């Protein structure tokens, strides 16, 4: 049995199925991400795991114990909320100490552990500050320290970085991952940002419409999407029907599925091997994205997105023809048709 | 068994406490005889009939209505444009208005009455006019808050700038853009103002006394003579307040939903 | 160069004229009058000296402060719980309850006093009921006593307290409760450590408004027994409007002292709020 195990979990609100027969397993020390668009049920799943929301059916095991009916405060779970939920009338160290005081830890130990946490998250010098005197990133780190100081079995993070600027978010992602590794903390992160999920996770569960549609390592998810939904959600995949693909490359032998996905960055301007598929189309739109130039190409009546590294100084003009090559192994068959 | 929580218990007691006097008054206004029994001996509408046939009541009601209505209109005409131009053109002056609002809290009617009598009594100006003037000041907190909320909700400053860039004068922009937008908010504040003035007793009683009998003063006079008629007056007053409250709810909800659906 | 905005002048001149005529000038005249000898004489402290040496007026202040403090205290304690109970109802019901609460706040002054006469007056509903049950509290309680008046004051404090406290509960985020629960706090502990301290400045502020509200209240007490209650507003009213015993200068001095009390209450509130919530300043 895994460290955290969720079996056949279902939940409805007002007759609406939010989670449907969900199964999920997390190993000790792993950072697992629940990734999906808003309304896919990922936050509800997190709240059920924390015990703040009750499930309709299903079982939850943590560290071998059935906790399905255990109250939130006895589950030994730490949680960082999207709004951080810092107590405004308590200072940084009082916020962090709160959970320890509730669990009747001795004063000297509280002091020790709070100081340790403050050092770990890098808030030395801010001990006596109130939440509203801190920046968003600092507040986020207080919330993290507050949930870690009680040494929970599982740490839950509900979109913890979504309220922050891009630059701070990137730094905090790194710091979060570092702390998680250092403490070997079993962690579940909820996010709708696929880049964030890729950057920090050991494994990713992709959710849509209350179900898990695919799970695996970031590498697997990115290179082997199993459905159109995942392909579109994870990257800017081109999704083509079998019929469209046949028209472009009549000679290619394809598995018998309805749709195929091609990543925009797998197109090359020069062929690498003999079997590369050759495509020619008209440039309908050129967008400069900094280090990448994005072309919208019309191959016949089929629109295709192509990302190339922005190497040359001159852009190709709209209306000109462009020839590109793609390897057959980058044409990914999408086996799952649902969702 | 579920324990009754402290909040639920307090809530129930508060509601009972607030409701009982109202219910008792309504019952009393409909009771035939009610001197020695716990419940009235019979029900009748004769107290209301008697009340509504009394010209003194009708006059008092009319005076209250007229005084409250005219004062509210004048207060809106003076205060709303002033608050508007202070917020839009002289935001630093707003602090001064806030201090004045605080001052009106620290100076209740009975204190105002002393100052007004000293300043204005005996020099020929009818004291009703002076009372109305004091009412204008008394309405300042409500109209200031109402106007301010409406203006902030519609982002008056940028709308004025946009209108002026399109060639409108200050007055044109104010009348064509601001007024229609704050209308419902101001209407709600005006209804509240009206109901506050309609219930006012201290100033009018001390400054004017029996020379201008309002509904509240008529009620005071009836307290000692006929309890049943007095309760009929109270019920009438309460029904009028209920109607005004209903209008306030209706109109504030309307302006609320309009904000929600852009 | 600053643009000259004619609109600003046209609109604010009547406004400030109104403030001057009906607020500032009367106030200054009243303050001046309080230092004037009776019948238009010269400068004197005698009215203040009289108030501070006359047990009757000192008693009026003591009574006013006592009934205001007591009614504000009872009002706020009950309203803190009641307002919380309201926040737990479904949203549409909450709005309806608030409308009704607000409606009863119109029940003040003369109509309120009368309603209490119907309930608790000499032949009031509850008095009759008690008689039938064989209880005679005619000796220990009448509406026209201090305890009776306190009941009336509490009545007009309650709706105001609830209307002022109810919005404060929206500052308590649901996620704070959830975070506290996950950290092992019972609901009781949460309210003690987080909820109540967050509400406290608002509660103190509301208390001082209730106190000021009661200190200045005139109509209810006047309606119950005319000038018999020895309260500051009643004394002021009698001193300035009595035809035979009118002593407007002494009334002015009383009014100035009442105004100072109210100002002090509002200032103490502001000072306390800052002191309680170091995290706010």
TrEMBL record, chain A:
<keyword id="KW-0067">ATP-binding</keyword>
<protein>
    <recommendedName>
        <fullName>Carnitine transport ATP-binding protein OpuCA</fullName>
        <ecNumber>7.6.2.9</ecNumber>
    </recommendedName>
</protein>
<dbReference type="GO" id="GO:0016887">
    <property type="term" value="F:ATP hydrolysis activity"/>
</dbReference>
<dbReference type="GO" id="GO:0015418">
    <property type="term" value="F:ABC-type quaternary ammonium compound transporting activity"/>
</dbReference>
<dbReference type="InterPro" id="IPR017871">
    <property type="entry name" value="ABC_transporter-like_CS"/>
</dbReference>
<dbReference type="InterPro" id="IPR003439">
    <property type="entry name" value="ABC_transporter-like_ATP-bd"/>
</dbReference>
<dbReference type="InterPro" id="IPR050093">
    <property type="entry name" value="ABC_SmlMolc_Importer"/>
</dbReference>
<dbReference type="GO" id="GO:0005524">
    <property type="term" value="F:ATP binding"/>
</dbReference>
<dbReference type="Pfam" id="PF08402">
    <property type="entry name" value="TOBE_2"/>
</dbReference>
<dbReference type="Pfam" id="PF00005">
    <property type="entry name" value="ABC_tran"/>
</dbReference>
<dbReference type="InterPro" id="IPR013611">
    <property type="entry name" value="Transp-assoc_OB_typ2"/>
</dbReference>
<keyword id="KW-0813">Transport</keyword>
<comment type="subunit">
    <text>The complex is composed of two ATP-binding proteins (OpuCA), two transmembrane proteins (OpuCB and OpuCD) and a solute-binding protein (OpuCC).</text>
</comment>
<dbReference type="InterPro" id="IPR008995">
    <property type="entry name" value="Mo/tungstate-bd_C_term_dom"/>
</dbReference>
<dbReference type="InterPro" id="IPR027417">
    <property type="entry name" value="P-loop_NTPase"/>
</dbReference>
TrEMBL record, chain B:
<dbReference type="InterPro" id="IPR035906">
    <property type="entry name" value="MetI-like_sf"/>
</dbReference>
<dbReference type="GO" id="GO:0005886">
    <property type="term" value="C:plasma membrane"/>
</dbReference>
<keyword id="KW-1003">Cell membrane</keyword>
<keyword id="KW-0472">Membrane</keyword>
<feature type="transmembrane region" description="Helical">
    <location>
        <begin position="228"/>
        <end position="249"/>
    </location>
</feature>
<keyword id="KW-0812">Transmembrane</keyword>
<feature type="transmembrane region" description="Helical">
    <location>
        <begin position="12"/>
        <end position="31"/>
    </location>
</feature>
<keyword id="KW-1133">Transmembrane helix</keyword>
<feature type="transmembrane region" description="Helical">
    <location>
        <begin position="65"/>
        <end position="89"/>
    </location>
</feature>
<keyword id="KW-0997">Cell inner membrane</keyword>
<comment type="similarity">
    <text>Belongs to the binding-protein-dependent transport system permease family.</text>
</comment>
<protein>
    <submittedName>
        <fullName>ABC transporter permease</fullName>
    </submittedName>
</protein>
<dbReference type="InterPro" id="IPR000515">
    <property type="entry name" value="MetI-like"/>
</dbReference>
<feature type="transmembrane region" description="Helical">
    <location>
        <begin position="186"/>
        <end position="208"/>
    </location>
</feature>
<keyword id="KW-0813">Transport</keyword>
From TrEMBL, chain C:
<dbReference type="GO" id="GO:0055085">
    <property type="term" value="P:transmembrane transport"/>
</dbReference>
<dbReference type="Pfam" id="PF00528">
    <property type="entry name" value="BPD_transp_1"/>
</dbReference>
<feature type="transmembrane region" description="Helical">
    <location>
        <begin position="250"/>
        <end position="268"/>
    </location>
</feature>
<dbReference type="InterPro" id="IPR000515">
    <property type="entry name" value="MetI-like"/>
</dbReference>
<feature type="transmembrane region" description="Helical">
    <location>
        <begin position="107"/>
        <end position="130"/>
    </location>
</feature>
<feature type="transmembrane region" description="Helical">
    <location>
        <begin position="190"/>
        <end position="212"/>
    </location>
</feature>
<dbReference type="GO" id="GO:0005886">
    <property type="term" value="C:plasma membrane"/>
</dbReference>
<protein>
    <submittedName>
        <fullName>ABC transporter permease</fullName>
    </submittedName>
</protein>
<dbReference type="InterPro" id="IPR035906">
    <property type="entry name" value="MetI-like_sf"/>
</dbReference>
<feature type="transmembrane region" description="Helical">
    <location>
        <begin position="65"/>
        <end position="86"/>
    </location>
</feature>
<feature type="domain" description="ABC transmembrane type-1">
    <location>
        <begin position="61"/>
        <end position="269"/>
    </location>
</feature>
<keyword id="KW-0472">Membrane</keyword>
<comment type="similarity">
    <text>Belongs to the binding-protein-dependent transport system permease family. CysTW subfamily.</text>
</comment>
<keyword id="KW-1133">Transmembrane helix</keyword>
<keyword id="KW-0812">Transmembrane</keyword>
């Amino acid at each position: 049995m895994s460290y955290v195990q969720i079996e056949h979990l279902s939940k409805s609100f007002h007759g609406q199925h939010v989670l449907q027969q969900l199964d999920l397993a997390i190993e000790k020390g792993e950072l697992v991400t629940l990734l999906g668009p808003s309304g896919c049920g990922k936050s509800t799943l997190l709240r059920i795991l924390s015990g703040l929301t009750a499930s309709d059916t299903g079982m939850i095991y943590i560290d071998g114990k059935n906790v399905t009916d255990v109250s939130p405060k006895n589950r030994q779970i730490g949680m960082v909320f999207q709004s951080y939920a810092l107590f405004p009338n308590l200072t940084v160290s009082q916020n962090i100490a709160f959970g320890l005081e509730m669990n009747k830890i001795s004063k000297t130990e509280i002091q020790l552990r709070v100081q340790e946490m403050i050092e770990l998250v890098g808030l030395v010098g801010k001990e006596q500050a109130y939440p509203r005197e801190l920046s968003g990133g600092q507040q986020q780190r207080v919330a993290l320290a507050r949930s870690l100081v009680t040494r929970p079995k599982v740490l839950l993070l509900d979109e913890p970085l979504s309220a922050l600027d891009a630059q701070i978010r990137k730094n905090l992602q790194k710091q979060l991952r570092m702390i998680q590794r250092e403490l070997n903390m079993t962690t579940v992160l909820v996010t709708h940002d696929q880049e964030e999920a890729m950057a920090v996770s050991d494994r990713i569960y992709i959710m849509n419409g209350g179900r898990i549609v695919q799970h695996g390592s970031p590498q697997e998810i990115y290179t082997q999407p199993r459905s159109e939904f995942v392909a579109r959600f994870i990257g800017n995949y081109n999704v083509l029907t079998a019929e469209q693909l046949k028209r472009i490359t009549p000679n290619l032998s394809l598995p018998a599925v309805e749709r195929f996905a091609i990543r925009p960055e797998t197109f090359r301007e020069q062929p690498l091997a003999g079997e590369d598929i050759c495509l020619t189309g008209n440039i309908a739109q050129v967008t400069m994205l900094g280090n990448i130039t994005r072309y919208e190409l019309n191959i016949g009546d089929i629109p295709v997105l192509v990302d190339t590294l922005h190497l040359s100084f001159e852009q190709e003009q709209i209306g000109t023809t462009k020839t590109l090559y793609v390897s057959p192994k980058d044409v990914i068959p999408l086996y799952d048709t649902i969702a | 068994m579920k324990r009754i929580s402290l909040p639920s218990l307090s809530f129930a007691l508060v509601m009972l406490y607030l409701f009982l006097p109202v219910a008792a008054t309504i019952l009393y206004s409909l009771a035939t005889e009610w001197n020695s029994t716990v419940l009235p001996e019979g029900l009748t509408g004769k107290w209301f009939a008697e009340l509504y046939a009394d010209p003194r009541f009708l006059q008092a009601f009319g005076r209250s209505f007229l005084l409250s209505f005219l004062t509210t209109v004048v207060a809106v005409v003076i205060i709303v444009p002033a608050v508007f131009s202070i917020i839009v053109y002289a935001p630093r002056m707003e602090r001064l208005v806030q201090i004045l609002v605080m001052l009106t809290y620290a100076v209740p009617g009975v204190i105002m009455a002393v100052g007004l009598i000293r300043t204005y009594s005996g020099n020929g100006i009818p004291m009703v006019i002076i009372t109305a003037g004091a009412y204008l000041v008394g309405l300042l907190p409500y109209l200031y808050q109402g106007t301010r909320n409406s203006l902030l909700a519609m982002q008056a400053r940028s709308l004025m700038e946009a209108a002026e860039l399109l060639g409108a004068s200050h007055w044109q922009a104010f009348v064509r853009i601001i007024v229609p937008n704050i209308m419902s908010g101001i209407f709600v504040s005006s209804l509240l103002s009206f109901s506050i003035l309609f219930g006012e007793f201290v100033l009018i009683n001390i400054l004017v006394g029996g020379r201008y009998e309002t509904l509240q003063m008529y009620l005071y006079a009836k307290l000692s003579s006929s309890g049943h008629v007095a309760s009929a007056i109270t019920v009438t007053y309460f029904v009028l307040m209920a109607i005004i409250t209903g209008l306030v709810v209706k109109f504030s909800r309307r302006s609320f939903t309009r904000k929600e659906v852009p | 160069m600053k643009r000259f905005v004619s609109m600003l002048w046209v609109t604010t001149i009547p406004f400030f004229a109104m403030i001057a005529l009906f607020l500032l000038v009367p106030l200054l005249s009243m303050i001046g009058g309080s230092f004037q000898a009776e019948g238009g004489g010269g400068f004197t402290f005698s009215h203040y000296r009289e108030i501070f040496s006359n047990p009757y007026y000192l008693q009026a202040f003591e009574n006013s402060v006592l009934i205001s403090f007591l009614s504000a205290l009872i009002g706020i304690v009950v309203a803190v719980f009641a307002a919380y109970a309201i926040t737990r109802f479904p949203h549409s019901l909450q709005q309806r309850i608030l409308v009704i609460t607000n409606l009863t706040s119109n029940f003040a002054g003369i109509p309120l006093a009368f309603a209490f006469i119907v309930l608790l007056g000499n032949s009031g509903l509850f008095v009759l009921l008690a008689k039938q049950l064989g209880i005679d509290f005619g000796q220990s309680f009448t509406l026209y006593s201090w305890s009776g008046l306190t009941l009336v004051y509490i009545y007009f404090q309650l709706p105001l307290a609830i209307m002022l406290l109810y919005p404060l509960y929206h500052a308590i985020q649901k996620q704070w409760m959830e975070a506290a629960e996950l950290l092992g706090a019972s609901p009781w502990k949460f309210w003690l450590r987080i909820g109540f301290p967050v509400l406290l400045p608002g509660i103190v502020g509301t208390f001082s408004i209730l106190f000021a509200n009661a200190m200045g209240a005139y109509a209810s007490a006047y309606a119950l027994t005319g000038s018999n209650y020895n309260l500051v507003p009643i004394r002021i009213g009698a001193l300035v409007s009595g035809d035979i015993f009118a002593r407007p200068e002494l009334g002015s001095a009383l009014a100035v002292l009442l105004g100072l009390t109210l100002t002090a209450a509002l200032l103490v509130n502001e000072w306390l709020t800052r002191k309680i919530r170091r995290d706010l300043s």
